[in-house]
Amino acid sequence: MITYGTSGGIDPAPFDPVVLGERNIAVGGYWLGAHLRLPGSRAAEPLHDLLALAASERIQPMAGAEYPLDQAATALTDLISRRTTGKVILRAT
User: Fold this and answer.
1) Cβ distance 37 to 61 under 8 Å?
2) Closest CA to 91 of 71, 77, 73
3) Is the entire prediction scored with pTM above 0.90?
4) Rounded to 5, what percent of the chain is helix, strand, coil?
5) How far is CA 91 from CA 26, 67, 79, in A?
6) pLDDT tens, residue by residue, 1-43
7) Residues sharing a CB contact under 8 Å with residue 32, sequence separation 6 or more, in sequence order
8) CA-to-CA distance for 52 and 46, rounded, in angstroms?
9) Contact at 8 Å (CB) between 55 and 80?
């Protein structure tokens, strides 16, 4: 299982470590911000390259929904209700 982002919050149901161990299931976590601060981290250069590609629009994030700014409450409701995928964009104009 891989997840990225927690727009719906943290799942309140905890993992049972005994069940995980019995089934040889491992759970790991990764936080890019912490990784970037590690001495000798090699993540900064690829991240810089990725951001440059995004800035040049050679790659674009997946936009799942767009809302005008006056519908921000609807956008938040849809996000919380898991009716969106990708990024949710609020347009100021």
Assistant:
1) no
2) 71
3) no
4) 40, 10, 50
5) 41, 6, 16
6) 444 555 556 665 667 778 888 888 887 777 788 888 889 889 8
7) 43, 47
8) 10
9) no
